[in-house]
Request: fold
Amino acid sequence: MRSDSSIQWSAYPALCVAGAFALGIVGASRLVAASFFLWLGGVGGGLALFVGMQWWDRTRLVTLAPLGRTFAVMLVMCAAGGARHAAYEARSPRGLAPAAEKSRNAVSVQGAITNAPQQTEEATRFVLETDTLFGPRDTAAVDGQVRATLKPSPWANAAPSFPKLHQGDMVRLHGSLRRPSGRRNPGGFDYSAYLSRRGICCTLYVDTPDHVIVLGNRRGALQDALVSVRGHIRRQIARYVPSGEGRAVLRALLLGDRSRITDAQRDRFAKTGLMHLLAVSGLHVFLVGMVLYTLLRPFLMRFRLRWRTVEVVRAVVTVFVLSIYMLLTGGRPSVVRAVVMATLFIGGIFFQRSAHPLNTLGSAALVLLAVRPPMLFDAGFQLSMAAVAGIVALNPRFREGVPEQYRNSASLDWLVSTGTASAAAILGTAPVLLYHFGWVSAAGLFLNMIGIPCTGLALTSAIVTVTMGGVWTAAAASFGSAADLFLQGLLATSRYGADWFSWAGIRMSTPDFWKLGALGAGLVAIAQWPRPRLRWRWVIASSLFLTVAVWGSVVGPGARPTLDLVFFDVGQGDAALLKTPSGRHVLVDTGPRSPSGAAAEFTVLPFLEQQGIQRLDLVVVSHSDQDHLGGVPTLLREVQVGRLVHNGYLVDTELYDETRRLLDQEDIPHQAARRGDTLRLGASVRARVLSPPDHDNFGGENDASVVLRVQYGHVDVLLPGDIERIAEQDLVRTYGENLGGHVVKVPHHGSETSSHPEFVHLVGDPGRTHAVVSAGRSTRYDMPSEKVIRRWQERSEQVHSISKKGAVWIRTDGKEVWQARWK
Reply:
């Protein structure tokens, strides 16, 4: 097939077969009740249909047998995908997950480390294939993979030193075994699904070196060699690469170890469309393997070998080097996909059989999904496949549109090729990025022209450094410095690109099927541009999708102006965001802060980023306890804040002093709120301050909480902070029956010291009130009280427990109140 010919999807059987296999995986993930044997029956039915079509074709002169055979093959592959997923997800009778669900105290497990441990200054992380569980009374044989973290307690006086661990080591660990939690907040990360797609059922945290016992190892010759090579690479990087940032990036490029890449660096690479340069991907496989494959031919020809001998030697050497590189980097989906595609490409050259990249891509996808079916739902797998498909299908169309005079020299042609390939990859991955992350950056179109050469030169220099290290010190040092120089250029590209091109992108706060469908149909239309009939069909389909998306936002249920209240799951603390119909954003309390960080960093900030919220018009801190004030310093550093309101009570804590200092540095207005104050939150939303009253010594810190009553239309929202008996009685005396609310945050996380019967009776209404209990899942604080919950259940239409189901999203149009679904 010519490189400028149009894409004809039916011409690529491997791609169609992989698509059918993936469809079966999707079906099995949705139809959980369908067993392995039911899917196996589907395979049998497809085979029977194929045989019937063969018989029909032989007995009739004109038949639809070819179409029937195609359908039969697709049915077989679809059912095979469902059967493979059902078998993969089948629970083992010795599974570790049930034991983790029952576990309350620390337990001991034994097993082998399956991957190269990633070690940072704070922690060591690895995957443990368990075989034994040591209970308090007996020992059981178990199956299951555990994500183990060796990290000293944040309250430890001195950081202890854990044993040095390697892939293949047999270890016994004693720690907290848990099932990972799912997504607890909108915009948050679903850690449970992430681990499940990798076959990991549980997490284990160990905080003491004495609880780590190395029993030996199960390494074979290959694993021993991999451990030695990894150690050699790490030593050479540490010895010859001058900067810490350069060493961290090189560990990511050569070993797939991104544990030393900071969150800020990851964020910059993601926002500039350069993340594929930081993650080991097909580009790196090309630089490592295909360049070697090309250079080996003239080198081997010098030995006057026959053509077939040269092809055999360079094919075997290249595939071997790529396989070692794949193992060194941990077998990431993008690397496996690239290695499989490179192997098929090399095999095609050797056997003199042409293979279109889309067919090769389908073969690679089929291999990956057959090994681990849940990989289909992994964003990394989808991005890897979409990037290659975009380059193959769209890049020829873009090159056709470039005038010939811009390609009449090698340098210009390289610039054009880089630009069109970057554009094709960005557009190809745009639907995936918008669906998973709500953001796609167009800055990579320009920045890749700098980033790709920097990465290629850095990787080449690093390989020479690692090869020469210990053999020729001067050469290793020179190439190590060169690699560091190129990496500094890459890091500077991401840093300045994030500053200068932060505007260059498309944002989608929530996945919209119709918009994504319009984008996908438009991309297919571009790929089919040389074929007018198909082109215009897809253009019409894209227009229809876009029309439905536009009119759906105008006349659909989401078109009404609403007041949204998002009560975040911040553990044992409070944080609630109000989104007004006029587009203002108010955050009431900010969650706790612990030695491991502020909860707002992992709950509030991801939601703000997903929704494209760059400014908080108002932050209200009900009182200065750390579980309400803890996230303020983090938010002040990361988000624009219009002003801050607090209760005016001074406290002598480091957190309070840090907050005051940051407010003064950023010149953010802040003031104390008192009863009778009104906070204007737009034309239709008003917040009245009900407490504290304007006099000193009003109870303790909790009773002095700022109490807000937010009014939108006929709906009232009561946010009482952590008030207790004194403040509740004061509110009852002052406002009486006017305290009633349609949405109420239960005071003080449902503690027995709050929510006294008279207060609950006046505030709640069995036919209209939605009560939200903000408390952590830990039972250490005995919150919420069962007695208090029953009290609110008697006076509410519904009681929402954050500790059980995660964040609660309440929405009102000023007349009705309902719970919005975000999971």
In short: DSSP finds 27 helices and 28 strands in the chain. The chain has five domains: 9-89, 97-219, 224-507, 513-558, 560-819. Residues 9-89 form one domain. Confidence is low (pLDDT under 50) at residues 1-7.
